[in-house]
């Protein structure tokens, strides 16, 4: 009897020894058949496939995946991988319930190239998931990755990441859910180096290092630069536009949440973000033809975003902002600048209810001389785009502004502004200013338009109404209240603010 059971045991062991390699062979055969039966626009080649049904492991070596555009048959995606390792597959779930359950998925050295076609029509119908099995993966690990996006028309580089690695937890794919993000995951950790991205036709974004996590993300050495030099840009544009040179040591974004809601609306939320050591140079060549398009105010720009944005707090720490304008073929461009720039912006949001507000508080040093405090608020729901702007300026030599005021507003100032306060109450069309200033030796020259030569007649009239000092008045401060200041909608909000300040200074009396 003993030998009978011993023989049965030996038979089972032999059967198992034979069954395992046979099972491995047939599973491998099934995988190869599935790869050959993919749609015509998808091609997958691999050097070898290793299967172990006992441990639930599948490994692919030297994988090449090519995807063509189904309509045009042009190349769309190319993906090379050194290896793909899948561990602990639940075959029972897959065979009987059409579910893929995996413990570990590891992609080694994926090199992704995406060929971007020209403008294509946006989908008009809601997203519909394909007939793919439900997928659940506990851990996803991608190492030694690289990615590029190339223009299909010009083969120029639109986006590039030299190196990246990704770790994801609890990745889920639910094809039965009709939403824009059929893949969800938790506890993501993404690291990338040497990122380049085209931002529009003329500018390019560079990020030296990026670490993205669900609780906090850090971008290091961020640069936004115009592709051309200042002089060269003017040859490529038909109407004026800004030349950018932005450098930020680091950007910290805390508690990020993003996704799609109501099927199609993308949303992005962060509780607190900060830009450290911002250095922003902006240059505009005014010799290029004017851009007469309507310039929206910030409330309208937020309101008309095609996604939901909610930045609860954004800080700019230890920054510098320089703005230059070239108005003559010869000579130095006019310049204004702000050093020691610090700002806190609250509720940068396009979803809050009526009555709530976006608020900006700024402290800085103007033209390396005068301390400046500024406050602004607006409600994105206000149909008139009403905003309030307040500022307090310390002791300042007015002639320092002439390099900017002369070409921009055709006025020139002399004298010292010891202390200046003003409040601007404005809409998209008109504004009012309430200004108070303590000055000495103030003189105003009104200039002839275009030539910027002194208009003696208008200057004489202006200086009849402009007091030279506030020392002998009834009040320490000269005051001005001006209403109905009309906004030029083809110019920026900053031009609107300058118009108000000019009106206040020209009419200040005590």
How do the strands and helices of this protein lay out in sequence?
Blueprint lengths: L1 H35 L5 E11 L4 E12 L6 E15 L1 H7 L1 E10 L2 E6 L17 E18 L5 E17 L9 E17 L3 E11 L2 E11 L3 H7 L5 E20 L3 E21 L12 H6 L4 E19 L7 E16 L8 E9 L3 E9 L8 E7 L2 E2 L4 H8 L1 E16 L3 E17 L9 H10 L12 E9 L6 H14 L4
Parallel strand pairs: 4-6, 5-6, 12-13
Antiparallel strand pairs: 1-2, 2-3, 3-4, 3-5, 6-7, 7-8, 8-9, 9-10, 10-11, 11-12, 13-14, 14-15, 15-16, 16-17, 17-19, 18-19, 19-20, 20-21
Descriptive report:
The chain is α+β, with helices and mostly antiparallel strands and 510 residues long. Helices cover 17% and strands 54% of the residues. The protein contains seven helices and 21 strands. The protein has a 21-stranded mixed beta sheet that branches. A hairpin with a 3-residue loop joins β19 (411-426) and β20. Mean pLDDT is 84; it is low at 126-130 and 455-462.
- Element order, helices and strands? HEEEHEEEEEEEHEEHEEEEEEHEEHEH
Bulk shape: elongated
* Proportion of helical residues: 10-25%
What Rg, in angstroms, do the CA atoms define?
32 Å
β-strand amount: over 45%
Give the termini distance in whole angstroms.
Answer: 122 Å
Counted by DSSP, the helix tally is 7
Poorly predicted parts: 126-130, 455-462
Summarize the main sheet: 21 strands, mixed
Q: What structural category arises from helix and sheet content?
A: alpha+beta
For the residues shown, what is the average pLDDT? Answer: 84
DSSP summary, beta strand count:
21
